[in-house]
Design a protein that fits this description.
By secondary structure, the chain is of the alpha+beta class. It has a single domain (4-132), classed as Alpha-Beta Plaits (2-Layer Sandwich). Helices cover 39% and strands 17% of the residues. It has seven helices and four strands; from the N terminus they run E-H-H-E-H-H-E-H-H-E-H. The two termini are 16 Å apart. The structure holds adenosine-3',5'-cyclic-monophosphate.
Length: 141
C-alpha cells in the first residue's frame, strides 16, 4: 500500500483558521481525500498516537498541544503518497522548510508546525487505523 498516507491539520492551524487554505494545498497538490474527521484528541489518545516519541524531552508538551483543541485527521491518496505529502508539508522545523511548503507558510514553530505526515508506508497504515475504520475510507471504484 504505497498510495495512501495519514495527515493531521494540527490544533494550531485549526485555531488560526487555516484549515480551508490547507485543504486547498492538499487538493492542488493532487491528493484525493479518502476520509476526514474533525476531532479533539484526549491527552491519552495523543500519547498513544505519538508513543514512538515517549522518551523525547518534548513528549509532554507535544501531547498537551495535540490535545489542546480540535484537529482534522485525514487519509490522503496519491501515487507515492507518503513521500509526496512529506514534500508538500516541508521540514518539521518551519525555519528549515522550503518556500511554498505548508509548514513554511502556516507553522508557528517546531512543535506547533501546522500539519503531520506519516514517515513510512507501514506507519501510514498504522496511523490511519488509529483514527479510521476500514468502512470510513472511501473505496476506489
Ligand atoms: P510531527 O511530524 O507530527 O511528528 C512529531 C512531532 O513532534 C513533530 O511533528 C513536532 O510537532 C514535534 N516535535 C518534533 N521535534 C520537536 C522538538 N525538537 N521540540 C518540540 N516539538 C518537536
Amino acid at each position: 500500500m504505497n498510495n495512501i498516507t495519514f495527515a493531521i491539520i494540527k490544533p494550531d492551524a485549526v485555531k488560526n483558521r487555516n484549515t480551508g487554505k490547507i485543504y486547498d494545498r492538499i487538493i492542488s497538490a493532487g491528493f484525493e481525500i479518502k476520509s476526514a474527521k474533525l476531532l479533539r484528541m484526549t491527552q491519552s489518545q495523543a500519547e498513544g498516537f505519538y508513543a514512538v516519541h515517549k522518551e523525547r524531552p518534548f513528549f509532554g508538551e507535544l501531547t498537551e498541544f495535540m490535545s489542546s483543541g480540535p484537529c482534522m485527521v485525514l487519509a490522503l491518496q496519491k501515487e507515492n503518497a507518503v513521500e509526496e505529502w512529506r514534500k508538500t508539508i516541508g521540514a518539521t522545523n518551519p525555519e528549515e522548510a522550503e518556500n511554498g511548503t505548508i509548514r513554511k507558510d502556516f507553522a508557528t514553530n517546531i512543535q506547533e508546525n501546522a500539519v503531520h505526515g506519516s514517515d513510512s508506508d507501514e506507519n501510514a497504515k498504522k496511523e490511519i487505523g488509529f483514527f479510521f475504520s476500514d468502512s470510513e475510507l472511501i473505496a476506489n471504484n
